[in-house]
Specification:
alpha+beta; 2 domains; about 220 residues
């Protein structure tokens, strides 16, 4: 009996080591193996007790202990065997996909830079009027199209002055489009002053790019 017990312990440790290495999820095979193993060894324990393996004429307590020991050891070994033989491998960890980047804002329909206005003025130059021809055609060809005109300046001058100048330039573009037959309620205007520069205000080239009016589709 000591030899059987040692063998049982060795087998149990071997199965536990295998299970820890394989890291598989416990499933139906382990449950089925435990039921079958427990039933088989429980019966075997009872038979051994009745056949006086545990001594002459064993009492009820000895028989019960033999059956219980058989059920416990058989259930453990059956569960481990079933788990190792046919339970599935652990599924790979689920890696959350990173959220997609926000969509880029749509490009403006038109951008009029500083050279399309007279110096320190909201008056449109002939070049600005020519540049607006595509926007004018789009508005004429699509009666549902509405636009938003945004004015910007460079950083030279006070904030209050630049804000007002950006508003005047946006309004100048609107007045021109309305004079060409576009309904005023299809056009929104707003001035942002020196906010949202698109270039470096430390250079003349950069400041010229920041002095601009953008025409966008309105929702």
């Amino acid at each position: 009996m000591r030899i059987c017990g040692a063998a049982l312990i060795s087998l149990l440790l071997l199965c536990l080591s295998g299970c820890a290495a394989m890291q598989k999820p416990w499933g139906k095979c382990a449950i089925g193996g435990a039921l079958i193993g427990g039933a088989a060894t429980g019966i075997a324990g009872g038979v051994m007790a009745n056949n006086e393996v545990f001594g002459d004429d064993p009492d009820d307590g000895t028989r019960a202990a033999a059956i219980a020991g058989g059920v416990a050891s058989g259930a453990i070994l059956g569960a481990l065997a079933g788990h190792l033989l046919c339970d599935g491998e652990a599924p790979p960890p689920v890696v959350a996909e990173p959220p997609p980047p926000p969509p880029a804002p749509p490009a403006p329909l038109e951008v009029l830079t500083g050279n399309h206005f007279a110096f320190n003025s909201a008056s449109l130059t002939p070049g600005a009027i020519a540049e607006l021809s595509d926007t004018l055609d789009s508005l004429r060809n699509d009666p549902e199209l509405r636009i938003r005109i945004e004015g910007y300046t460079d950083s030279v001058g006070s904030d209050a002055y630049n804000l007002r100048l950006s508003e005047r330039r946006a309004d100048a573009v609107k007045r021109y489009l309305v004079s060409e037959g576009i309904a005023a309620d299809r056009i929104q205007t707003r001035g942002f002053g020196e906010a949202s520069p698109v270039a470096d205000n430390d250079t003349e080239t950069g400041r010229a790019r920041n002095r601009r009016v953008e025409v966008h589709r309105a929702p």
